[in-house]
Amino acid sequence: MRQPRFSKQFKAALSKAAGPDGALDARTAITAIDTLILQKKQPDGTTIVRRFAEQRRPAFSEEEKATLLRWQEVVEGCFEVRERLDGGLLLHNLLDDLLYPTWATADSDVLKHMKPQTFVIARVVPAHADFDMWLFSGPQATYGRADGPEFVQAAAQAVLTDPRVMRRNTELMAMAWRRQAEERAAFIDFAGTDLVVGPPQTVQALLVEFYKSRQPSPTVIASYGYPVPSPEDLAAFSDEILMSDSVAVVYDAAEGIHYFNDFAAAVEPFIVPAEHLTPPRLTALRGYLGADSIPPFLFRRLAADYPDSVDRVFAKLLGKKGFHWDRDGEAMLARKKPTFLHHEPTPSITVLPTRLAELRKASVGSRGPNWLKRPGRRSERGRQ
């Protein structure tokens, strides 16, 4: 890790993991290094552990190489300890509702405090291709039974924040995609389209009414036993969006619902005659292209909506006369939007795993639904 080709990444990973005052405890540092080695994509799309497995001399055997490569399949989980195994533990991941027979890689003493019905936050990796066996990777944090309510709430928040933690449970993910498709169809039926553009206050009012139409009655909500986001919460706009001249709400089939500020100005170059395509008119679109938060799917959408003008707009924007979207568009997006190169769409509605829903109900007396709705993704370009 301290070789010249990785030292910069090593220092950057530790710096990012450090607190505001620069403090870095051993557990956080180890997790950051483990993530860098096993998961961080290099420019060629590989990982450090893959390079090690394939380039080490003397070479690893095929079985050893396969074991190392399986370690890339990290599962980060909030686990409930179900029972002890011979030298290991049976863990139930509350984030994906799957069981993980898990062993320690070195000192089995770390398992002493992990008793049935306690909880563990840990990273695990598959140990063998032919058996359901997992190994702890990096440090673990253990929690007692008394910590259950707080642990369960943290697990629910983790699922809500990043549905990718459920990805190994294909049934849960399929249910979430179905719920998103149902809500998108309802939105299109309500608004007449999957893309609404207008002044921020007008669009926000439409969203509030839409979410009101989807919300259970106050009596039903009161029976849940825990607070749920109000229509106003789900339709909340940032100050950046509220100050913009226009906002677009796009409910994409794969990417879910997104908000884009100053959208009318970004679309204008595709609408005006070629002779009116001046640099000032390209300012908003240039901001979209340069903003890390604006996802590539929006540019694909614009290209599909304006096929007759997309080539000349991007040729002018990029200063490349021979630009053709069908030939050059994806390569351009890869250059301009590198953070999205390995992007995996996730549904905007999260289905709670069964065990997590049970524990949540027990801890707060909840009779609510087994799903959670995330607010729209705010894809802001920043004011210029």
Overall shape: it is: globular
From the N-terminal CA to the C-terminal CA, the straight-line distance is 40 Å
Q: Outline the low-pLDDT stretches.
A: none
By secondary-structure content and strand pairing, the structural class works out as alpha+beta
State the share of residues found in helices, binned by percent.
40-55%
Q: Assembly type of the shown chains?
A: single chain
Q: Report strand order across the widest sheet.
A: 1-2-3-5-4
Please indicate the percent range of residues in DSSP E strands (runs of 2 or more): 15-25%
The tally of helices reads: 16
The total beta strand count reads 12
Radius of gyration: 24 Å
Encode the helix/strand succession as letters: HHHHEEEEEEHHEHHHHEEHHHHHEHEE
Describe what you observe in this structure.
The chain is of the alpha+beta class. The chain contains 16 helices and twelve strands.
What is the element layout, followed by pairings?
Blueprint: H1 4-17, H2 26-38, H3 48-55, H4 62-70, E1 75-85, E2 88-93, E3 98-103, E4 119-126, E5 134-136, E6 141-143, H5 148-161, H6 170-191, E7 195-198, H7 200-214, H8 218-222, H9 231-234, H10 239-242, E8 247-252, E9 256-261, H11 263-271, H12 283-290, H13 296-305, H14 310-318, H15 325-336, E10 349-351, H16 354-364, E11 371-373, E12 377-378
Helix pairs in contact: 1-2, 3-4, 5-16, 11-12
Please give a handful of descriptors for the protein shown.
single chain; 384 residues; alpha+beta; five-stranded mixed barrel; four-stranded mixed β-sheet; 16 helices; 12 strands
